[in-house]
């Protein structure tokens, strides 16, 4: 049984429910961030991240910096491109808009390739865009948290390498790392950004990035200094390299307690084959999506190949809005998120199913959520077609 106080199951697309051991790691006594006990823990954490991202290339490098997933955008925009550079942003929802805004803040010129809500840009569209202009990098949101749309990273990466080999491949994996397969080396990815509080299963507060040797070479060849101080790899790269080599180093104070929690979470994740973890998330996702269809409800991502395994965006019955159902779900011990996509935010809710809610057999979070959604909709007056509730 969990030692946490009773609380509703947090089933939003992050933060997620946390394992007791991860939370207990946060209570670690205070220690010096340049003392060897912490340096060793941080170094092991950076080494474990290589296994999570599936990279064995010694030229690649992980970064763990205090901040949210959004700081990953700043790291990309500040370090991998320069003012006036052109970048291609594949759009599957709200977070592509935000990434584009971040680029513009740094004087970068983003071109967005947009798909209809619930869809993703098609291969031929991406190829046409890449042939029309030389882009310094392309960004792909692996799972867009606003729509639940899953992008196909491997085939896009192959396309980029074939059509525009000098274009860096950047993946926004904030809502995918830890629940969707990512093969950093095999797929030839240059940068993946993520955060601690989603499928990795650690409290919020850490921006996590993995970069390729090619991306670091691009950074080192800049003609202008990075446009940020805190996000600059000029400041952070030697720190991360030193920590991973178990050498004390300092630029800005990290969060030792959060790093301990991340170390614990990664130890748990890597104690079993990653393929098994991805399969569990896929099975839970398919169970949820079948239950939603049985209730007569539709997803924003209507095609199976577009549907993420760590979250589901669900259209509410016609005329119903999130404030009508979310309080009912909370009373039943389940917390979902409201809509986020600006055009349709009042029409849908989001169900996050990542981490221990999926992988811990002692938890009944998923079954409880399905039951709560079914009963909650009935209580607010919804009758499914053909009595399928």
Automatic annotation (TrEMBL):
<feature type="domain" description="Aminotransferase class V">
    <location>
        <begin position="26"/>
        <end position="342"/>
    </location>
</feature>
<dbReference type="InterPro" id="IPR000192">
    <property type="entry name" value="Aminotrans_V_dom"/>
</dbReference>
<keyword id="KW-0808">Transferase</keyword>
<dbReference type="InterPro" id="IPR020578">
    <property type="entry name" value="Aminotrans_V_PyrdxlP_BS"/>
</dbReference>
<comment type="similarity">
    <text>Belongs to the class-V pyridoxal-phosphate-dependent aminotransferase family.</text>
</comment>
<protein>
    <recommendedName>
        <fullName>alanine--glyoxylate transaminase</fullName>
        <ecNumber>2.6.1.44</ecNumber>
    </recommendedName>
</protein>
<dbReference type="InterPro" id="IPR015421">
    <property type="entry name" value="PyrdxlP-dep_Trfase_major"/>
</dbReference>
<dbReference type="GO" id="GO:0005777">
    <property type="term" value="C:peroxisome"/>
</dbReference>
<dbReference type="InterPro" id="IPR015424">
    <property type="entry name" value="PyrdxlP-dep_Trfase"/>
</dbReference>
<dbReference type="GO" id="GO:0008453">
    <property type="term" value="F:alanine-glyoxylate transaminase activity"/>
</dbReference>
<dbReference type="Pfam" id="PF00266">
    <property type="entry name" value="Aminotran_5"/>
</dbReference>
<dbReference type="InterPro" id="IPR015422">
    <property type="entry name" value="PyrdxlP-dep_Trfase_small"/>
</dbReference>
<dbReference type="InterPro" id="IPR024169">
    <property type="entry name" value="SP_NH2Trfase/AEP_transaminase"/>
</dbReference>
<feature type="modified residue" description="N6-(pyridoxal phosphate)lysine">
    <location>
        <position position="198"/>
    </location>
</feature>
<dbReference type="GO" id="GO:0004760">
    <property type="term" value="F:L-serine-pyruvate transaminase activity"/>
</dbReference>
<keyword id="KW-0032">Aminotransferase</keyword>
<keyword id="KW-0663">Pyridoxal phosphate</keyword>
<feature type="binding site">
    <location>
        <position position="350"/>
    </location>
    <ligand>
        <name>substrate</name>
    </ligand>
</feature>
<dbReference type="GO" id="GO:0019265">
    <property type="term" value="P:glycine biosynthetic process, by transamination of glyoxylate"/>
</dbReference>
